[in-house]
Write a structure and sequence with these properties.
The protein has four helices and eight strands, in the order H-H-E-E-E-E-E-E-E-E-H-H. With 159 residues, it is α+β, with helices and mostly antiparallel strands. It has one domain: Jelly Rolls (Sandwich), CATH 2.60.120.10. The strands form two sheets. The chain has a four-stranded antiparallel β-sheet with strand order 1-8-3-6. The chain has a four-stranded antiparallel β-sheet with strand order 2-7-4-5. Helix 3 crosses helix 4. The chain starts with 5 loop residues before the first helix and ends with a helix.
Length: 159
């Protein structure tokens, strides 16, 4: 595995446009990781102590549906952010995530990043703005998944 640097992180879509000093701060809390296909990265309700930027591969974001099990509500691939619950107290995962393929990612220590954000409000503001964009996209994905599920259920019941 390689040493994560600010220069490497500058190429990540989620961090596009951040300053070199901010990227260096984030790099000091990051490492490169690899997960095999089928690996559950985190489960709904677990403690959110990390987050990831996907370098390669594909991750399914899921939610537990009572009586049905896990339902995929979003997909995260190249350049995508995986996890935002680390930034919101109680720091519990709202969803789960499982690797569809082998995944390589940059993993960030959430407590270290929160400390850096507290010490550097500009870094915190830059991350929060980017997180809101991701959350808005995931809400849209969730809405689409729920509508599709509802239509599929209606079609199945009618046949």
């Amino acid at each position: 595995m390689l040493q994560v640097t600010g220069k490497i992180l500058a190429a990540q879509r989620f961090l596009n446009g951040m300053g070199a000093a901010e990227l260096d701060e984030l790099a000091s809390a990051a490492s490169e990781v690899m997960f095999p296909a089928g690996h559950r990265i985190f489960a709904e309700g677990g403690y959110a102590d990390k987050f990831w930027l996907v370098e390669s591969g594909h991750v399914a974001v899921d939610v537990q549906v009572p009586g049905e099990g896990a339902a995929v509500i979003a997909n995260v691939g190249l350049g995508g952010l995986l996890g935002w619950s680390w930034m919101v107290p109680s720091h519990r995962w709202t969803f789960g995530a499982i690797c569809v393929t082998e995944v390589r990612a940059y993993e960030f220590n959430a407590a270290a990043v929160r400390e850096r954000c507290a010490a550097d409000p500009a870094l915190g503001a830059a991350l929060i703005g980017r997180l809101f964009q991701v959350v808005a996209g995931r809400l849209k994905d969730t809405r689409t998944a729920l509508i599709t599920r509802s239509v599929d259920a209606s079609l199945h019941a009618a046949s």
